Amino acid sequence: MLRALELAATPGVPLGPNPRVGCVLLDADGATVAEGYHRGAGTPHAEADALARAGDRARGTTAVVTLEPCNHHGRTGPCAQALIDAGVRRVVFAQSDPNPTAAGGADTLRAAGIQVESGLLTVESGLLNKVWTFAVTHRRPFVTWKFATTLDGRSAAADGTSRWVSSPAARHDTHRLRALCDVMLVGTNTVEVDDPLLTVRDEHDQPLATQPLRVVMGERELDPGRRIFNGDAETVHLRTRDPEQALEQLFARDRQHVFLEGGPTLAAAFLKAGLVDEIVVYVAPMLLGAGRSAVADLGITTIADAFRPRVTDVTVLDAPDGQSEPNVRITLTPGES
Fold it and tell me: Any idea what DSSP says for residue 121?
């Protein structure tokens, strides 16, 4: 199973919209007959990949798979039936499929007389597809809210200047995190005031070949000349102020991970709606004393009602140029969703 997880995490495999899955076929002595993994939507699933490599040698084998074999016809046929047709004797999988459309493969296999076992390294498999599992379970994208702030919680100075609150190392790290998502989301005010490009760029400030969907949320009309509407990536304007409606529309587009980089008003809207699943904050060693807050009014009037996310990681990002001050990246979770 560890090898199957390794295969599933093969570099270059898309992070969505399909789960990453690995499969290893073993003979009666436990020797590997064939291996396979899923390479993205529209390509053979891990089990089908392994079975194709094994050919007739698949008969009588044990299939070790990181996810319950699917039980539905999508772009490809059901893996449960493929395993049955290949004469596989036993199937061991880690994580049960949380997608109601594809679930049920284990029951189909058992009905065909195949021995089925589940639950081996379930946690590890779930972590491999954390965002996908969340999205199909909650029927909405996972939301990561990222912001940069000074020690006193300011995202911009009193005159509106905000470049650069974060350090070069923090900005480079931000692009690394952007590349893990399939949506970059901001509000109309951020587009008007900051004119962001919202692309994923490398260390030379060049856009990567694959870009997340750029999304602007809000009812206000926008200047089509803003940089977010250039040809570097696809852009969608969701004309709503309701975070839940925005996520519903994005989920319908098969998007699973939203990187929320909007201003304090949009951040507050998502927080008050309970629709932030992860927080990443870059703290710069500076004080402003005045200026724009990192988040707008949350309606909290007493310390007892304070929003208290749980810290899961603290990392110091050293300055590669040896000149700028290091920033601290703090990763937090609002709790169980």
Answer: T
Residue recorded with tokens 């807050």: 293
35 tagged catalytic: no
CA dist 156 and 267 (Å) reads: 15
269: its two tokens: 């809207």
Outline where the chain has alpha helix (H): 2-8, 46-54, 79-85, 105-111, 122-128, 130-138, 168-178, 188-194, 243-252, 264-272
| Average of per-residue pLDDT values in the chain | 93
- Rounded Cα distance, 67 and 86, in Å: 18
* Percent of the chain at pLDDT exceeding 70: 97
Task: Please give the pLDDT value at position 168.
Answer: 87
Given 47, 68, 261, 278, which residue is catalytic?
Answer: 47
- Asked whether residue 322 carries a pLDDT value surpassing 70, the answer given is no
Average pLDDT over residues 280-307: 93
Distance CA 326, CA 242 (A): 36
Question: If pLDDT is split at 50, 70 and 90, which confidence band does 337 have?
Answer: very low
- Average pLDDT score over residue span 82-90: 97
- 63 forms beta bridges with 25, 91
Distance CA 81, CA 91 (A): 12
3-state secondary structure of 319: coil
For the cut 60, the answer to whether the pLDDT of residue 164 exceeds it is: yes
For the chain, the C-alpha Rg in angstroms (whole number) is: 23
What does the DSSP assignment read for 95-119?
Answer: EPP--TTT--HHHHHHHTT-EEEE-
Instruction: With beta carbons less than 8 A apart as the criterion, state whether 37 and 19 touch.
Output: no
Q: By 3-state DSSP, what share of the chain in percent is helix, strand and coil, each rounded to 5?
A: 30, 25, 50
- Quick one: three-class SS letters along 219-267? CCCCCCCCHHHCCCCCEEEECCCCHHHHHHHHHHCCCCEEEECCCHHHH
Strand partners, 331: 280, 313
